[in-house]
Amino acid sequence: MNFKRVVKHLITTERDVRKTFSPSHLQHIAQAISASESQHSGEIRFAVESALELHPLLQAQTPRQRAIEVFSELHVWDTELNNGVLIYVLLADHAIEIVADRGIHAKVGNAYWEVLCHQIEQSFAQGQFEAGVMNSIDAVSTKLIEHFPHSGGGKNELPDTPVVIG
């Protein structure tokens, strides 16, 4: 058990999320997702979580494992073309994870998502949280446009609004 990590998670709250991603930042993120989805048939979800709950934390749950849970909870996997993408931030760890459904993942692969996560983590390390998220939306959009261009008349299968998990 990493005692330092446990303490960090115990002291990071939803208030920290609101300081990092203000309501106007979250509004910009929602607008960027909406604009992106007008260009392709994929679905993008953004979720930010302040910290892990105590039990998963004591079980040493990784940000990746939690992101996969959130991917499922938000039904990002439930799109017609299996081309949903979750951009997940675990604030206490300053970690970002991208979970892509099988349709887009098969076309893009792990390496792209890993490089993208690393770039965003660099933005976060410089305190540029909104810019990091906006860059991730642009990068995900590029791949969705390339592999799932908008065919017209598509419906918005998932909400565009960011999810804040206490």
> Number of helical segments?
8
Straight-line N-to-C gap: 23 Å
Query: Could you tell me the strand content as a percent range?
Result: 5-15%
Please indicate the count of domains: 1
Round the Cα radius of gyration to an integer and report it: 15 Å
Top CATH class:
Alpha Beta
CATH topology: Diaminopimelate Epimerase, Chain A, domain 1
- What letter string, H or E per element, gives the SSE order? HHHEHHEEHHHE
Whole-number mean pLDDT: 94
Helicity, as a percent range: 40-55%
Which strand order spans the largest sheet, edge to edge or round the barrel? 3-2-1-4
As residue ranges, the low-confidence spans are: none
- The counted number of beta strands is 4
Classification by helices and strands = alpha/beta
CATH hierarchy: architecture: Roll
Largest sheet: 4 strands, mixed
Described by the principal axes of the CA atoms, the overall outline is: globular
Write the layout of secondary structure elements.
Layout: H1 3-11, H2 14-20, H3 23-37, E1 43-49, H4 54-58, H5 63-73, E2 84-90, E3 95-100, H6 102-108, H7 110-125, H8 129-147, E4 163-165
Parallel strand pairs: 1-2, 1-4
Antiparallel strand pairs: 2-3
Helix pairs in contact: 3-8, 7-8
